[in-house]
Design brief:
By secondary structure, the chain is an alpha+beta fold. Helix content is 29%, strand content 20%. A 6-stranded antiparallel beta sheet has the order 1-2-6-5-4-3, with helices on one face.
Length: 186
Protein backbone atom coordinates (compact mmCIF):
# COMPACT_ATOMS: atom_id res chain seq x y z
CA UNK A 1 0.00 0.00 0.00
CA UNK A 2 1.27 3.41 -0.94
CA UNK A 3 1.86 6.51 1.11
CA UNK A 4 -1.56 7.86 0.06
CA UNK A 5 -3.32 4.85 1.58
CA UNK A 6 -5.72 6.04 4.27
CA UNK A 7 -6.36 2.72 6.05
CA UNK A 8 -3.50 0.25 6.22
CA UNK A 9 -5.03 -2.38 8.46
CA UNK A 10 -8.38 -3.68 9.67
CA UNK A 11 -7.65 -6.55 12.02
CA UNK A 12 -10.25 -9.09 13.07
CA UNK A 13 -10.07 -9.26 16.87
CA UNK A 14 -13.17 -11.27 17.74
CA UNK A 15 -15.21 -13.99 16.04
CA UNK A 16 -18.32 -15.46 17.66
CA UNK A 17 -21.52 -17.24 16.64
CA UNK A 18 -24.07 -15.13 14.80
CA UNK A 19 -27.27 -14.50 16.75
CA UNK A 20 -29.38 -14.04 13.61
CA UNK A 21 -28.20 -17.26 11.96
CA UNK A 22 -26.53 -19.99 14.06
CA UNK A 23 -24.87 -21.43 10.94
CA UNK A 24 -22.89 -18.22 10.46
CA UNK A 25 -20.49 -16.05 12.44
CA UNK A 26 -20.11 -12.41 13.37
CA UNK A 27 -16.90 -10.52 13.90
CA UNK A 28 -15.36 -7.34 15.25
CA UNK A 29 -12.36 -5.80 13.54
CA UNK A 30 -10.28 -2.79 14.57
CA UNK A 31 -8.94 -0.11 12.22
CA UNK A 32 -5.42 1.20 12.53
CA UNK A 33 -6.82 4.76 12.55
CA UNK A 34 -10.05 6.74 12.94
CA UNK A 35 -12.06 6.50 9.69
CA UNK A 36 -15.07 8.64 10.67
CA UNK A 37 -14.08 11.47 8.32
CA UNK A 38 -14.87 9.19 5.36
CA UNK A 39 -18.46 8.50 6.46
CA UNK A 40 -20.15 11.49 4.76
CA UNK A 41 -18.43 10.51 1.49
CA UNK A 42 -19.36 6.85 1.86
CA UNK A 43 -22.91 7.95 2.68
CA UNK A 44 -22.99 9.83 -0.62
CA UNK A 45 -21.92 6.85 -2.73
CA UNK A 46 -23.44 3.84 -0.95
CA UNK A 47 -27.14 3.45 -1.71
CA UNK A 48 -29.07 2.19 1.29
CA UNK A 49 -26.40 3.07 3.85
CA UNK A 50 -27.64 4.52 7.13
CA UNK A 51 -25.35 7.26 8.38
CA UNK A 52 -25.47 8.58 11.93
CA UNK A 53 -23.28 11.68 11.99
CA UNK A 54 -23.49 12.39 15.75
CA UNK A 55 -22.95 8.71 16.57
CA UNK A 56 -20.18 8.32 13.99
CA UNK A 57 -21.57 5.11 12.48
CA UNK A 58 -22.39 3.90 9.00
CA UNK A 59 -24.55 0.80 8.65
CA UNK A 60 -25.10 -1.09 5.44
CA UNK A 61 -26.24 -4.39 4.03
CA UNK A 62 -24.02 -6.18 1.53
CA UNK A 63 -24.83 -9.58 0.06
CA UNK A 64 -27.08 -10.47 3.00
CA UNK A 65 -24.53 -9.34 5.58
CA UNK A 66 -25.08 -6.56 8.09
CA UNK A 67 -22.07 -4.28 8.51
CA UNK A 68 -21.71 -1.40 10.93
CA UNK A 69 -18.63 0.75 10.54
CA UNK A 70 -17.59 2.83 13.55
CA UNK A 71 -14.77 5.35 13.77
CA UNK A 72 -12.29 2.73 15.00
CA UNK A 73 -13.92 -0.64 14.32
CA UNK A 74 -16.31 -2.71 12.22
CA UNK A 75 -18.92 -5.16 13.45
CA UNK A 76 -20.35 -7.61 10.93
CA UNK A 77 -23.03 -10.30 11.14
CA UNK A 78 -24.30 -13.14 8.95
CA UNK A 79 -20.77 -13.96 7.79
CA UNK A 80 -20.27 -17.40 6.24
CA UNK A 81 -16.88 -18.26 7.79
CA UNK A 82 -13.43 -16.83 8.53
CA UNK A 83 -12.49 -16.66 4.84
CA UNK A 84 -15.67 -14.71 4.14
CA UNK A 85 -14.80 -12.43 7.07
CA UNK A 86 -11.39 -11.73 5.52
CA UNK A 87 -13.07 -10.96 2.18
CA UNK A 88 -15.40 -8.50 3.91
CA UNK A 89 -12.44 -6.86 5.68
CA UNK A 90 -10.54 -6.48 2.38
CA UNK A 91 -13.67 -5.02 0.72
CA UNK A 92 -14.15 -2.46 3.52
CA UNK A 93 -10.50 -1.38 3.47
CA UNK A 94 -10.59 -1.05 -0.32
CA UNK A 95 -13.87 0.87 -0.24
CA UNK A 96 -12.63 3.35 2.37
CA UNK A 97 -9.28 3.86 0.65
CA UNK A 98 -10.91 4.36 -2.76
CA UNK A 99 -13.48 6.76 -1.32
CA UNK A 100 -10.75 8.71 0.48
CA UNK A 101 -8.72 8.99 -2.74
CA UNK A 102 -11.78 10.29 -4.64
CA UNK A 103 -13.18 12.52 -1.89
CA UNK A 104 -12.45 15.71 -3.86
CA UNK A 105 -14.91 14.53 -6.52
CA UNK A 106 -17.63 13.40 -4.09
CA UNK A 107 -20.09 15.79 -2.48
CA UNK A 108 -20.33 14.63 1.16
CA UNK A 109 -23.79 13.76 2.44
CA UNK A 110 -24.31 14.42 6.14
CA UNK A 111 -28.01 13.51 6.14
CA UNK A 112 -29.24 10.50 8.01
CA UNK A 113 -31.11 8.12 5.77
CA UNK A 114 -33.85 6.41 7.70
CA UNK A 115 -34.82 2.80 7.09
CA UNK A 116 -38.35 2.24 5.97
CA UNK A 117 -40.64 0.51 8.41
CA UNK A 118 -42.53 -2.62 7.44
CA UNK A 119 -45.85 -0.87 8.10
CA UNK A 120 -44.88 2.04 5.80
CA UNK A 121 -44.37 -0.48 3.01
CA UNK A 122 -47.26 -2.87 3.64
CA UNK A 123 -49.77 0.02 3.52
CA UNK A 124 -48.76 0.61 -0.10
CA UNK A 125 -48.67 -3.01 -1.26
CA UNK A 126 -51.75 -4.50 -2.98
CA UNK A 127 -52.71 -6.58 0.06
CA UNK A 128 -53.71 -9.55 -2.07
CA UNK A 129 -51.49 -12.07 -0.23
CA UNK A 130 -51.10 -13.84 -3.58
CA UNK A 131 -47.87 -15.64 -2.56
CA UNK A 132 -46.36 -15.19 -6.06
CA UNK A 133 -43.46 -13.31 -4.44
CA UNK A 134 -42.59 -16.44 -2.47
CA UNK A 135 -43.89 -15.08 0.84
CA UNK A 136 -47.09 -16.18 2.59
CA UNK A 137 -48.41 -12.63 3.00
CA UNK A 138 -47.86 -9.07 1.84
CA UNK A 139 -46.73 -8.30 5.40
CA UNK A 140 -43.97 -10.93 5.13
CA UNK A 141 -42.94 -9.52 1.75
CA UNK A 142 -42.86 -6.01 3.23
CA UNK A 143 -40.50 -7.22 5.97
CA UNK A 144 -38.12 -8.66 3.37
CA UNK A 145 -38.36 -5.50 1.27
CA UNK A 146 -37.70 -3.27 4.30
CA UNK A 147 -34.60 -5.34 5.05
CA UNK A 148 -33.54 -5.04 1.38
CA UNK A 149 -33.56 -8.81 0.97
CA UNK A 150 -35.89 -8.70 -2.06
CA UNK A 151 -36.66 -6.29 -4.88
CA UNK A 152 -39.99 -4.57 -5.38
CA UNK A 153 -39.95 -6.19 -8.84
CA UNK A 154 -40.93 -9.52 -7.24
CA UNK A 155 -44.37 -8.15 -6.33
CA UNK A 156 -46.18 -8.63 -9.65
CA UNK A 157 -49.52 -7.27 -8.42
CA UNK A 158 -48.08 -3.83 -7.64
CA UNK A 159 -47.43 -3.45 -11.38
CA UNK A 160 -51.09 -3.99 -12.30
CA UNK A 161 -52.93 -0.84 -13.43
CA UNK A 162 -55.25 -1.03 -10.41
CA UNK A 163 -52.27 -0.23 -8.16
CA UNK A 164 -50.51 2.45 -10.23
CA UNK A 165 -50.94 5.18 -7.59
CA UNK A 166 -49.71 2.91 -4.78
CA UNK A 167 -46.80 1.79 -6.97
CA UNK A 168 -45.80 5.37 -7.72
CA UNK A 169 -45.91 6.31 -4.04
CA UNK A 170 -44.01 3.19 -2.96
CA UNK A 171 -41.29 3.66 -5.60
CA UNK A 172 -40.91 7.32 -4.57
CA UNK A 173 -40.65 6.30 -0.92
CA UNK A 174 -38.09 3.58 -1.69
CA UNK A 175 -35.95 5.96 -3.76
CA UNK A 176 -36.09 8.71 -1.13
CA UNK A 177 -34.94 6.25 1.51
CA UNK A 178 -31.97 5.12 -0.56
CA UNK A 179 -33.27 1.67 -1.49
CA UNK A 180 -32.25 0.05 -4.75
CA UNK A 181 -34.89 0.83 -7.35
CA UNK A 182 -34.86 -0.54 -10.92
CA UNK A 183 -33.40 1.85 -13.52
CA UNK A 184 -36.78 2.22 -15.24
CA UNK A 185 -38.07 4.04 -12.12
CA UNK A 186 -35.06 6.27 -11.43
Amino acid sequence: MGKDTFVHNLEIVRVIACLADPNKIRFTANFDRDVAETFPYLNAILPGAIYNHPGKTLTLHRDGRLLTIYALKVEAAKIENRDDAQDVVRWIVGLINECHRKRATIKPNFERRERLGVIDIVKLLPGTNCKRCGQPTCLAFAAFLAAERVSIMICTDIFLSDYSERRKELITLLKASGYSVPESFV
